[in-house]
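Worked problem 6 (solution included).
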Amino acid sequence: MLLSLSNMPRDYAWGSPSLLAELEGREPTGAPEAEVWFGDHPGDPADVAGATTLDAVTGGTLPYLLKLLAAADPLSIQVHPTIAQARDGWAREMHLDADDPHRNYRDENHKPELIVALSDRFEALSGLRPVADTLRLLDALEAGGASDGVAALRERLSADGDALRDTLAWLLSGSAQTEVDEIIAAAVGASSDEFGAELDAIRSIAERNPGDPGVVVALLMNFIVLRRGEGIFLRAGLLHAYVSGLGVEIMAASDNVLRGGLTPKHIDVPELLSILDTTPGVVPVLRPAASGAVTSYPVDVPDFALRRVALAGSPVSLEVAGPAMVLATGGEITVEGADAEVRTVPVGQAVFATADETTLVLSGTGEAFVAEPGVTAFI
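Solution. The predicted structure is:
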């Protein structure tokens, strides 16, 4: 069975006032439009044509949540737990009300994520940069003049032990605000041939988050620019933040977030550090296929799988391990299921295929993303 899905954009403050409207070919509302959810998550289940919601169809069992995400301003720096960490945290916080702002764990699940760019440029912070590279970046900050804050940051990053973890603890402790302000000022005024893109990003982030220690945390992270069709996978324990752009995001069905800056919300520093993986390194970019209609984005989790389909007039037949979704992101797309049932998918909306559908035929011209559970999700 095929069901048509839609939903209203969520108006988070960091949302873009124009990107979703441009995608869908409509006039902007004037308000920020941050995310459109296609899933059965109780926070905002998708609407099914015919006056019901998707959770009424699935019973809330869908293992993934598919979204359109449109960022004009940086999201909070954050990290997500493993399943074991989520279960432990959930048990420890059972005494807290569900809406308690100090609650870290909203469920017992992990929340790995995959984002694929729809805009020509999608900016993100992902993972911690190797310390040796960051020390060269600090050279550029110090070139404009001596700074006690930058010197203090250099000293901590150069210390023995888990220097990155200790540095983050110091930055987020609340006791380093003077140094934070000095580091931000030095970064805003710095120039560098090697790190020009990183410094441009930090200036923009600092302008939107004055005095936030998260600006300095961002300075320690890899700055990544995705082009349309490129993606990054964000595993458990990986520090990250989306900065700007439009993308398709898919994640495990969870709301577990530990924040590390660029937010007025609660930051539980000890809990953040307990689940954070401080192993530095570059996060690989997943690139679209050089030829062919279908691009897969392989990820090592059982909750979801995502494929991009570029349609040029010839039908594309896909085997799916449902329940699956087809989200249209450009052109004119139709989906055909069993018994020759056909659904048109307007751009910015989706079609849900129940688990009994094993083959979907996509037709038309344009672009769509096909989401389904990972191969071991129900084992």
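Discussion: The chain has ten helices and 19 strands.
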